[in-house]
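User: I'm putting together notes for a lab meeting next week and I want to include a structural view of one of the chains we've been expressing. I don't have a solved structure, so I'd like a prediction I can at least talk through. The sequence is below, exactly as it appears in our construct file.
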Amino acid sequence: MSKRDSIYDQASEYLENGSLPTDDPEFITRFFGAKLVGAMDSNLENAFKTLDGEDNVNHDLKTQLSTLDHDQKAAVKELLEENAKGFFYSMMLKLRDFNYPVEVNFLDPDSNKKLCGLEDEQEFHFHYHDWIEEFSDYVEES
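Assistant: Thanks for the context. Below is the predicted structure for the 142-residue chain, given as structure tokens.
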């Protein structure tokens, strides 16, 4: 069970009834965050499978990784988690600190009318913490 299941289930219910909501900015923003964190977690999961020899990666890499003991693999997993968290955080800061104003706007799929967005430069930074805590199955917000 993933931390994202609840919001994905909620999105599925909306879609079964016709479409995602256009009048709930909080849901839209959280759903966006869940998708971003889900992409990060998916990459981490693939890396963990490779580390544990469960993936069909090239034979040489699989052989090298198989020499690691349990503690070494745990350290590599921690390093991967910290790197993923750092990359995601850096991306949020780069959006916040870009030399040109950056907005992420969510548009009504039918009318193209703006529903809501991440407009304030601080929003990218602040949402990061909430999204990691609420939606990541691997990375913990410290």
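A couple of points you could mention at the meeting. The chain is about 65% helix and 5% strand. Residues 5-135 form one domain.

User: Perfect, that's what I needed.
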